[in-house]
UniProtKB/TrEMBL annotation:
Gene3D superfamilies (UniProt xref): MetI-like
PROSITE patterns for this protein: ABC_TM1 (PS50928)
The keyword Glycoprotein appears for this protein: no
Alphabetical list of NCBIfam families matching this protein: HEQRo_perm_3TM
Pfam family, one: BPD_transp_1
Record's GO cellular component terms: ATP-binding cassette (ABC) transporter complex
UniProt KW keywords: Amino-acid transport, Cell membrane, Membrane, Transmembrane, Transmembrane helix, Transport
Protein name stated in the entry: Putative glutamine transport system permease protein GlnP
Length: 219
């Protein structure tokens, strides 16, 4: 089979895998962002214990390979009586991993807000939680958008790792077609091109958000 005919025939399978890749990344981003908010708040907490717990978590998740984390969750947890199907195991691993990176971005953004704004909020009678919610949080989110967007772009590529636990995302879809056609080069190149297109689209969305959230400049 010539490469053109091969790609035309395999494209529906690859696009289906790409759609699952997007769903995987978005789900992991949502759950990871929720966990990242908690970790970031723990990291700036007045409780020393919460700060230590958050730092240990971030250190472990950033200091160990994502592939190992996937294996621990999918193959290791059953020994403790916790068995997960490939899809939830993959989402859990990706969410837990990206949460560590995003929490540092959010913590840095929060700490980047001028201390005077905290003091001004307290002088108005706002509590620490109210200050975070209404004053500091919105500004920190604006600052963190570039880093959060980069995390999502990286997450798109990291989804390829869940193919090792039989999740039929883009890479796994390409491998299944390769197993039937024995033509790896055009299919791997096509899968790489689809990943690249997805990342480019997300970069475009990122630039739009950054322009809309940018502070007005004085002339």
């Amino acid at each position: 089979m010539n490469p053109t005919a091969l790609l035309i025939q395999s494209m529906p399978v690859l696009l289906t895998g790409a759609l699952l890749t997007i769903k995987f990344a978005l789900l992991s981003m949502v759950f990871g962002l929720a966990a990242a908010v908690v970790l970031a708040l723990m990291g700036i907490s007045t409780s020393r214990s919460l700060v230590v717990i958050s730092r240990i978590y971030v250190s472990v998740m950033r200091g160990t390979p994502l592939l190992v984390q996937i294996f621990v969750i999918y193959y290791g947890l059953p020994s403790l009586g916790i068995s997960l199907d490939p899809t939830p195991a993959g989402v859990l691993a990706l969410s837990a991993n990206v949460a560590a990176y995003m929490s540092e971005s959010m913590r840095g953004a929060i700490l980047g807000i001028a201390q005077g704004q905290w003091l001004a909020a307290y002088s108005l009678g706002l509590t620490r939680i109210q200050t975070l919610r209404f004053i500091i949080g919105p500004q920190a989110l604006r600052l963190a958008v570039p880093s959060l967007s980069n995390s999502l772009i990286s997450l798109i590529k990291d989804t390829s790792l869940v193919s090792v636990i039989t999740v039929t995302e883009l890479l796994r879809s390409a491998q299944e077609v390769i197993a039937a056609t024995y033509q790896p080069l055009p299919l791997y190149l096509t899968a790489a091109a689809i990943y690249w297109v997805l990342c480019m689209l997300l970069e475009g969305v990122q630039r739009v958000f950054e322009r809309r959230l940018a502070l007005p400049t004085r002339h």
